[in-house]
Amino acid sequence: MGAFNQPIISYTDTTVGAMFFNITPSANEINSVQVQELVAAAKERHKSAEASHYYQELLFSFLNRHSTLFIHERCHIFQAIAYPYLYLRNLREWLFCYGILKSFRDNSQSTFSLRNSVSEEWRATLHWPTWGLRVSIDDEGNHNQRLSDPNDPRDNDLTENGLLEDEASIFQYKSEIGAEGSGKGYRRWTRETQRPRYSTTFNFLARVLGEDNAYVALPALVRAVFRTTRPLEIFASLVATTVRWDVDWPAYIGIDKYYEWLLSALQQNPVLTRQLPDVSKPRDFDGNAYLDDNAFSELIKMSSGYPLYPLAQMLWQECNKDPLQPHWLFHPYTIFGRSEWNDEALEQYWPPIMIFRLLHPELSLNDAVLISTELHQPSGGEPAEHSAQWTQGVYLEALNMKHLVYSLTTNFYDSYPHNCWHHDCPYFSPNLCRRWITIPKDFRQCQFPTYFQGITLHRIDIDAKKIIPIKVNGGM
């Protein structure tokens, strides 16, 4: 990690395709030359386009020299546009957010609570990626699963997001060492001090298959099960099938052949239908389906107004003729070197939006936040009907919409730190602006209240703790 102790905390919102990086220099290095250059550039960044670009270059250089976390987060973007069920899941979340705001606008004369309830089916749908199953598999390949108990966590509790995180960690490890790697080497890497890693899924597989087989199997399993509408259940089933066949099978035939073997097992599974689920309904209505190439193609075609549509469309056109493509998902070191992540080969799949925060006592958050966008357009001629013209404003609108709707309908962000430090602002305590990105020095200049009114046709009544109409019976 270089001279810094946990200098970067990162995460990715795959619904919108947004990558976040919080950069916090440690106390003993806060006056280093590199940090001082960053601070000086942050203070100057608003003066010109050149100054803003220079600040961006310094931040990218920091990431490039000190961490491969960028590669980890970029893997999540690749997963979001390459894995059929993850694409469906994210599209469903997007349509849900759009529907909630449409409900506010369609009921412009109604009053709402600050936290609006949704059906149990939708609540479970939104939270399911972080909920999960408790899976057990014995030496004979017998397996069972049941819902995890959040009050009694176990080391065999698996979640959809956990599977994706573990795969991204292996992707990061292979990129960092510039080679295929091994299970034992990966285990050492995950245990290095000052390097917290995702390893729950790997540890589970290692207990069942052994370290080297788990290391080969995990990325192939994750990619295969996200071709189905029940990733966790199918994950348990495929691991059990591997045990019954031969626990050494993954390492013996290698990741590419093992992935093809898994796909063959799924395609022959009589329980899995070929019906594309209705993305406007909660996950309970999905049934047990295998999302083949035709289903994924149809899913992409119907999503032309969705932020990740341009990237998914481009990747589909490039890779749909070969089930192993994109090859670099299993072998990222063929694209990403030990220290370089600004590659030309994958430039067209640059993350749609990245948000960097340099957290330093000399800087206000307004000075330190950098928003970088790649303006993707659908390929193949004229944009499809209803396809958004993707600009920075549109990407930010998409991200703000997701954050607002989740704040209105779930407690999903309650554990996240508040982006704003203006505790005296009357809008702070209702907690609806918790994930608002652009924080002014003076809260009276904040654009959140205006944004809220424009997108919902309502305003927040602080005293009544309600969301009320802007106009009532033709008046204010």
Helix and strand layout, with pairings?
Blueprint: E1 8-13, E2 18-23, H1 33-44, H2 49-66, H3 69-82, H4 84-106, E3 112-113, H5 120-127, E4 133-137, E5 143-147, E6 157-158, H6 160-177, H7 183-191, H8 200-209, H9 211-225, H10 231-245, H11 249-267, H12 293-301, H13 309-319, E7 353-358, H14 365-368, E8 369-373, H15 392-409, H16 448-456, E9 458-461, E10 466-469
Parallel strand pairs: 2-7
Antiparallel strand pairs: 1-2, 3-10, 4-5, 4-6, 7-8, 9-10
Tell me what the structure shows.
This protein is an alpha+beta fold and about 475 residues long. Among the domains are: about 10-75 and about 325-375, no CATH class; about 130-270, no CATH class. Helix content is about 45%, strand content about 10%. The protein has 16 helices and ten strands. The strands form three sheets. It has a four-stranded mixed β-sheet with strand order 1-2-7-8, with helices on both faces. A hairpin with a 4-residue loop joins strand 1 and strand 2 (about 20-25). Helix 1 packs antiparallel against helix 2, helix 4 (about 85-105) packs parallel to helix 12 (about 295-300) and helix 8 (about 200-210) packs across helix 9 (about 210-225). It is globular and about 65 Å long.
